[in-house]
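Supplementary notes for students who missed Thursday's class. We covered one full example, reproduced here. Read the sequence, then the structure, then the short commentary at the end.
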Amino acid sequence: MDASLCISLIDLTSLNENDSETSITALCDKAQTPLGNVAAVCLYLPFVSLAKSLLKNSHIKIATVVNFPNGDLNLNATLKEIEEAILLGVDEIDLVFPYESYFSGEKAAALSFVKSCREACKTKTLKVILETGAFPNDMLIAEVSRSLIDLNVDFLKTSTGKIALGATENAATSMLKAIKDSGNKKVGFKASGGIRQAKDALKYLLIAEKLLGKNWINPSHFRFGASSLLNDILGEKK
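Structure (token representation):
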């Protein structure tokens, strides 16, 4: 695996209750490696301004999360989060899909929720977190993926990393196949949740390469949401 390529695909993430200016400063420093910079840092909203200041000359994107982690905020609250994020200057927004509402039969409402968020994000990159570990089967993952692609989201993302089951190869295959079958290769894919070692990351790269081609794999289309993967790639101790 090309270490530099893999690093360029990482959204280096810190979404912990004990995050601080010190820990986020360390994260931003870590994001700039001898083998190249990561694609983005993903952090809670209160740390966006700090990250922007620290990374202003790096071309590293600043991402934050909304409707996180349970996907159960109401639309107005989520739109306020998006508005604040945009005012602070984020480049990318990771939105948790209201999956429980979808499962309970409120499919149209859940998709309308995403549509409103898509419109509110304007030109910002929108990644929608399905939380695939909560889905009862791969067919439903494929169904939601197709619907989200139709809403012109920028990325489909597997997981929040906050429930027991994160990314899986089956979920990734369902999502990537939905992108392929849609004919819209502009939609990207983000594998997130439990990807800690380079050997695990390679599995997802191979699935994407098989379905969408090697040239499709770049930061505009493919990301890893991870906190410790970078350590493994660089051969550092965790």
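Commentary. The longest helix spans residues 107-121. The chain has one domain: 3-233. If anything here is unclear, bring it to office hours.
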